Amino acid sequence: MAVTKWFTGSVFFVLAATAYAHAHLTAAVPAEGSAGKAPQQVVLTFSEAARVTSMTLQREGQEPHKLTPLPAEVAARITVPLPRLSPGKYTLSWRVVGDDGHIVPGALHFTVVESAAAGGSGGA
Amino acid sequence: MSVDVLSGALRALSFLALFQAAGIALFFALCEQELPNTQVGLRRVGSGAALIAAAFLIAQYLLEAGRMSGEFGAVLDPTLQGIVMRSAASVTLSWRLLGLLLLVAGLRRRGAGGTAAGLVGTVLLLGAFTLVGHTSTAPLRWLLSPVLLAHLFAVTFWFGALLPLYLVSSRERAETAGRIVATFSARAVWLVPGLLLAGLVLATVLLPNLAALRTPYGELLIVKVIGYSLSMPLAALNRWRFGPALGRGDLVAGRRFRCALAMEFALLATILCVTAVMTTFYSPESPG
Fold first, then answer.
1. Among candidates B44, B48, B60, B119, which has minimal Cα distance to B92?
2. Please, which pLDDT band fits residue A48 given cuts at 50, 70 and 90?
3. Can you tell me whether residue B125 is helix, strand or coil?
4. How many angstroms separate the CA atoms of A2 and B166, rounded?
5. What H or E segment, with its residue span, contains residue B40?
6. What mean pLDDT is predicted for residues B200-208?
7. Which terminus in chain B has less CB density within 10 A, N or C?
8. Measuring CA to CA, how many Å separate B92 from each of A14, A33, A101, B88, B111?
9. Dihedral angle computed from the Cα positions of residues B265, B270, B274 and B279, in that order, rounded to the nearest 10 degrees
């Protein structure tokens, strides 16, 4: 009988705990597959608050370039400044972690058809 | 090998060891008094499985910083390690290690005290699964958390009993073995279909639509259902044919009983590994 009481009590204790789930991308600027002027920043919107733990930008045919520093805050909308980009195809890859500790990778592809207004050659 | 692959493998191995250890504790709660020849060995196996589970869980936790960056080198990154330490992964690990500690303590002690420690340890271990994951953000979380817990409890009871039943069938007297198999089967006949029912409730609520079955998460879910379906005939054979014959001292039936148990073990172990991969890398609400 005592064992049953312990067991039942423990189950209710467990169920009282708070929990969270995976963060996944709901919107991005530049958008997936978009083409246009070189963006000066990337804005990622997630289904829940998350923290970026890694972000790399890779121009087609070149080595990946780590973007730093990354924002330290936990937010559903994350903005990361980009270096000057020259025309070409780019892949932005990231990993975010939600409050639950789950690590969610993601990637975004976009094309720069002309450099930003200031001009100049790409930093990535 | 990538940091993701190694982390997934460690998680899968930790699942096997964790459910085995907890399952032995539940098996003792069911029939500890009737195991004159297997009790000592099972206590050692259960304690060993708990310690192995702890080692895998800690190793996987230490790799989390690497996974956050996608590189092994980031394991030593103090910023990322700080994020890991402040995350739910730390709370989950604490619950699991405490649960495993209680399991080992329970398995070292006979009687009601040992049984209670084993059960509380099992609750902590399984409860840790409700601290993270997909069930928690669904609007019906009040329903999904207990359903997930019931699902995990049934898995633990079923998977964790296969090895003890294998040993019981070969080391205990025929009538004792037959009685234990009957006792186990009387519970399993409700718990095993309950496992499927709980799994269906979880899938129905978590999957956004039928098309989600074509995502990696959905495909792995289908693999789990196939594995479950394949194990049912084996469980039925043992429940209604080999188990009763084993109790009558039929040696051939005893060998077939153990063969079916070994196949069930392989199937359920595969399902656990698939679950580890599915819940580490994929999510039901987002594509691949």
1. B60
2. confident
3. helix
4. 30
5. helix B39-69
6. 85
7. N
8. 12, 38, 9, 6, 29
9. 30
What the block records as the tokens of B67 is 């996974």
Q: Which residue in the set B120, B146, B286 is minimally distant from A6, CB to CB?
A: B120
Asked if B130 contacts B34 with a C-beta cutoff of 8 angstroms, the reply is: no
ipTM, interface predicted TM-score of the complex? 0.72
Residues of A whose CB is below 8 A from B134? 21-22
Rounded to whole angstroms, how far apart are CA atoms B201 and B218? 14
Q: Rounded CA gap, B261 and B165, in Å? A: 8
Q: How confident is the model at residue B89 (pLDDT cuts 50, 70, 90)?
A: confident
Chain B contact set for A48 (CB, 8 A): 137
For A3, the closest of B64, B68, B116 (CB atoms) is: B116
Token pair belonging to B11: 């998680």
pLDDT of residue B22: 97
Decide the pairing of beta strands A88-98 and A103-114: antiparallel
Contact state of A17 with B131 under an 8 Å Cβ cutoff: yes
